[in-house]
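User: Fold this, then the next.

Assistant: Folding the first:
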Amino acid sequence: MIFLADVPPPIHGMSTINLAILQLVKEKNIKINFINTTPKRFIFLYGTKLWSIAKILYFPIVMAYLIYSLFLNHDKKIYRPINGGIGQVFDICYLFLPRILGYKIYIHHHSFNYITNKKKSFSCLNTLIKKKVIHIVLSEEMNRILREVYLIDEKNVITISNIVFFEENFKIQSNLSKIIKNSFMNQNNGIVIGHMSNLCIEKGVGIFIKICEKLNNENFNFSAYLAGPCKDLKTRQLIKDALEKNKNMKYLSSVYGENKKNYFSNLDVFIFPSIYKNEAEPLVIYEAAQYGSIIIGSEIGCMKEVIKSLNGLSYPISDQNKDKYILRICNDIIEMANKNWGISRSSRITDFYTLRSLKKCSLDVLLEDFTDV
């Protein structure tokens, strides 16, 4: 099959899942022609306005590889995670010829942007490939809305949650007592809250900072840790100003490997108040949940459904109710401290892996379909 996808670097949710699926396909010994649609030579431009230009310049090279592969491939299957916005113009070009040649097309949806708001670009793409396609979505709600908005047959849609790509981590479970001991909440030294993302206003860093300000004004005992890269100059200044005003806050920049594991294992509450229009099912929520953190977030994309499944708390955010949202979250955190929710950390970790096991069967079905030549 042809595997046409972005893989890291750069690291973001979609590229991480693409790589995970690519590795699973290789483990199944499925013969693939892999075409990386990431312009590697221009990685240094990622996160800037020039990144889009780099992708446009790289497009003819990808098309050349694709056309070559289409005539060499024998099982006539192609896997393509599609873009969330204007990049779907690329996807239409990529999938037009495979459709003409009778390929079975697997589209992986990683954005809610064109699902909740019907877009002409995806309507065009859907019309082009409608007859011989499998749509892979991230949640049951995403499944339902996609089918209703674009009149897609139920048999052509499969739900595969991102949680299935988290491997059983026996180290987390065996070190559970140590994780609970390290939790500041259990030492009565205050709650540890955190936010991690590609830090920007759309991902919720501004709201997180205001939550910290409100807790600080309430003389609440807590520590807050921001983590993740930040390329936006306005957001950098916002973080710098917040750190000067609030001594309970720390900025750790990007964390990887053991540092990332330590970050999540020491959090009591993970807050992800995203308002990003393309948000669907952020991996970072699961990364925090597998260490037993209480998840608090917004309800954009799949997040309401995901956070509910993890026994967390979610509320809608709009420009009109941001202050109300911040107050509500602060009240929740203060209440958690009074109830000492840390004692249920072990059950939250167990629930995470139980949920993963329940959802994994749909991934097995997809991999079987990949191998069915």
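Now the next one, as you asked:
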Amino acid sequence: MNRFDLEDAMSSLYNIGDDIDTVLHSYMDARVRPSEDDMANMLIGVKTLYNARYQKMWEIFEELIKTGVIKDCNKLSDCEVIKRGSVVQSSPELEERFQK
């Protein structure tokens, strides 16, 4: 596993808005509206799906910590700085700016 696996798992959690929009469309705008039971089943399904996605993401995160891909660090010089999806190694200049 690598950080890209974690990014994929995190990105899959972002889709919750689209899934909620689908449920809302079904409830409010669809020609054939779902019954109460169907609505409950859709919501239970969305909840279960996102719980599973979250669990998967957490397992990847824990594995990356365990294997040292992600480090528990207290100083910026011990870490990688992640900015907008790209990884930049820290430098003395960056660390100095961080401490100010």
